[in-house]
Amino acid sequence: MDDLDRAGALLAGASTMLVTCHLGPDGDAVGSLCAVAALVRARGKAATLYCPDPIPRNLRFVPGAADMVRRIGRDARFDLTVVVDCGDLQLLGKSFPPRTVTGSLLVIDHHATATPFGDVTICDPAAPATAVVVARLARRLGWELGPLAAVGIFTALVADT
User: I want to staple 80 with a disulfide (CB 3.0 to 4.6 A). Which of 14, 22, 34, 98 is the partner?
Assistant: First the structure.
């Protein structure tokens, strides 16, 4: 079983997910985060989009960006947290919730300098954007990229290239 298969197993086993990215989100982070949320929501999963920093004005058009929350409730509990476009746990900031809140961690990234920190980490430094890795995972799982996910993937790819 490779990392894509392990990621698929985590996604299949979770019904509630937190989807997040690094602080100071850029186009790849926002696009990838929103694409992952659209993909799992299309499969009936509950996805909370989270980033403590505001989404840049020029990226607020991405489907799902308006759903972003900047704080997690005290009683929140997730089966799985999907972290996109983040190569180091420190880049999530001090307010990143503890494991009792996040559940398992799936990290999807493309940075050559990444330091793996998830239960499963998919990192392809040859990918021009994290969104390419997200699209590859969706294809492996047989998930169609609907219009909401496609806009996120395209935005991320354009932003990072």
Answer: 14
